[in-house]
Write a structure and sequence with these properties.
Length: 483
């Protein structure tokens, strides 16, 4: 179905990009980013907060939706891939697209032209996203904006009766983490952080192996986000308003922990039988970011304000202890010339698994299994989710297929009235590691308590489903898949 462009500009008179609006948003977000964790004492206070659960969102199955009507906020980096993925999933109706930059919204609109959707555009104004959330004909809102906008937008969407899927991290402060939890419980709306690495094929394999007792008792896990983004952070065209550079220029700690942490937490049953107790974080000094700013400023005065900022150090290492006596190590480095790694190490009393920097490996006792043995393990322990949709996911792509697997699984759960794989407690907990690490780094790597966002229900919450005994019936429009 072809779209009539005149029907898409919801906000009259705002189709052109407003420099005034953009400057206001820059000022607001810059101030918010700068002040987000300026009071480190408040972080400790929030870490010790205790509360009674209003309603347990772990395992909550919202009423099923035959058709999931979706709106998207943020169409710069991650948003477009979600739009593309959902355009291929049956039972989805893309109703609205939003970005502060009109050209980005128009580009995504054009990319799905002919796919049968007639979304309206919300653009050119700082509050355009609110208009999208206020629509009565949406069930789900995807949020893929700069980090410090995530929680505010998610809360607003839930308050207006929408489930939300938020790009990582879900929040940048502990106050925001608590707001997400309390709003999700009160509104009974799902709040899922789109931690795509939980859908990596090897990570899902090790999760199922752990469930089946392959590793014995889980002793230790390691995860990381080691990804050289130095050039991207200083590139004016990669991240809108250089928002990611500003995060790294003004905050000091493990700012992006969830990619490595999420899969380890699922293996250990964190929030579902075990909980995090406390962490310590240590950070190196910055060896590269300030030097890069100085070099760029020689020929481009635009970068002068970024000289001698309190940059996050290159490597931050956080260690966590759980109630069951397990330990987790999480590392973060996005400004050194390291080989990409999420580590993903699982260590148990009977065996272990390790993925990076090499392809996934499995050990029994203290010996790596042979290639033939590995294939047998893979055949035995590959979860039903990968068997059902893995081939199609790899064909569509997106980080090896895990992006599509995540989007498909989320829609399938909503259409079948099933609990989501990740809930608001996971979103809050995994995101909370960033501000907690900031406090620890600022306090000579002292330990800090980690909040129990579940209000004690972690003791009885059940593990996520890997068997697909229910659902799994959502189709994919394969005619649009490029081989």
């Amino acid at each position: 179905m072809k779209s009539n462009r005149r029907n898409f500009l919801k906000l009259g008179g705002l189709a052109g990009f407003s420099l005034v609006g953009a400057n206001i948003l820059k000022a607001v977000e810059s101030t918010k980013s700068k002040n987000a964790n300026s009071n480190l004492d408040s972080i400790r206070g929030q870490a010790l907060k205790q509360r009674n659960q209003i309603f347990n969102m772990c395992g909550y199955a919202a009423p099923k939706l035959d058709s999931v009507r979706v709106g998207f906020i943020g169409l710069g980096n991650r948003g477009p891939s979600h739009v593309s993925n959902l355009s291929l999933i049956e039972g989805v109706d893309i109703k609205a697209l939003c970005d502060i930059v009109p050209e980005k919204a128009e580009k995504i609109l054009k990319s799905i032209d002919g796919a049968g959707f007639t979304p309206e555009l919300y653009t050119g104004h700082t509050d355009a996203w609110k208009k999208l959330c206020e629509r009565e004909d949406l069930d789900l809102v995807y949020i893929a904006t700069p980090w410090n906008m995530h929680a505010n937008m998610a809360v607003y969407a839930m308050e207006h009766g929408k489930h939300v899927c938020i790009e990582v991290p879900a929040a940048t402060t502990l106050e925001e983490c608590w707001q997400l939890v309390e709003t999700s419980e009160r509104t009974r709306k799902h709040c899922m952080m789109m931690e795509n690495c939980c859908y990596d094929f090897f990570e899902l394999l090790t999760l199922n192996m752990a469930r089946q007792g392959f590793f014995g008792e889980i002793v230790h896990g390691e995860g990381a986000y080691i990804h050289n983004l130095l050039g991207s952070n200083f590139n004016k065209t990669v991240y809108w308003d250089l928002w990611r550079l500003r995060e790294n220029a003004d905050r000091r700690g493990n700012l992006y922990p969830t990619h490595g942490l999420g899969p380890v937490c699922q293996v250990m049953g964190i929030n579902r039988g075990d909980k995090m107790e406390y962490l310590v974080s240590m950070m190196s000094k910055d060896f590269l970011m300030n030097e890069t700013a100085k070099k760029l400023a020689v020929s481009d005065g635009f970068y002068s304000p970024y000289i001698d900022r309190p940059y996050r150090g290159n490597m931050t290492t956080s260690t966590i202890r759980t109630s069951s006596g397990r330990t987790i190590m999480v590392q973060h480095d996005v400004s050194s010339p390291n080989v990409y790694s999420r580590i993903h190490k699982i260590s148990g009393t009977k065996g272990a698994a390790l993925k990076y920097p090499l392809p996934g490996k499995i050990s029994i006792e203290d010996n790596w299994v042979s290639e033939e043995e590995y294939k047998g393990i893979e055949e035995r322990y590959t979860p039903e989710l990968i068997k059902r949709i893995g081939v199609i996911a790899k064909q569509i792509g997106g980080h090896g297929g895990m992006d599509f697997l995540m989007d498909w699984r989320t829609i399938d759960c909503l259409r079948n009235g099933l609990a989501l794989d990740q809930d608001v407690y996971d979103a809050a907990l995994w995101s909370s590691i960033a501000p907690l690490s900031e406090w620890s780094v600022a306090n000579r790597s002292n330990s800090i308590s980690i909040p129990d966002f579940t209000g004690g229900s972690w003791k009885t919450n059940q593990p996520i489903d890997l068997l697909l005994e229910k659902g799994g019936n959502t189709g994919v429009v394969q005619k649009n898949i490029k081989n």
